[in-house]
Amino acid sequence: MSVQEENDLEAALPWWRQRWPWLLMAGPAVAIVGCAITIVLAFQGFSDQSIVDGGIKRGLVVEKVSTQTPLSQPH
Fold first, then answer.
1. Which tens digit of pLDDT belongs to each residue from 18-71?
2. How many C-beta neighbours within 10 Å does residue 17 have?
3. Which of 27, 47, 55, 71 could be cross-linked to 51 through a Cys-Cys bond (beta carbons 3.0 to 4.6 Å apart)?
4. DSSP type of residue 67
5. 53, 60 Cβ separation under 8 angstroms
6. Cα separation, 72 vs 75, whole angstroms
7. All residues at 6 or more sequence positions from 54 whose CB lies less than 8 Å from its CB, including other chains
8. Chain center to CA of 35
């Protein structure tokens, strides 16, 4: 079989029978799977940790609460 015949045969195949689309789709597919695994691990391991350093959680913001008493204001 000549090179020209092999190229014609390869060009006649549908796209899912070619190797290049799968090779190009492999990178984004691996990134999506890695992202999903990262999200699952983040929610399983750290979703309900308490704040122990004197902070207050208000929504997504964690504020540090000062333990010092305010100075009395002169009248």
1. 899 999 999 999 999 999 999 998 888 766 666 677 777 777 777 777 666 555
2. 10
3. 55
4. -
5. no
6. 9
7. 64, 65, 67
8. 3
What is the domain partition of the chain in residue ranges?
A: 3-64
Cβ(38)–Cβ(46) under 8 Å?
A: no
Nearest to 63 by CA among 52, 55, 54: 55
Distance CA 40, CA 38 (A): 6
- The 8-class DSSP code of residue 13 comes to S
With tokens 């092999």, the residue in question is: 6
Contact 51, 65 (CB under 8 A): no
Sign of CA dihedral 20, 21, 24, 29: negative
Length of the chain: 75
Distance between CA atoms of residues 18 and 10, nearest Å:
8
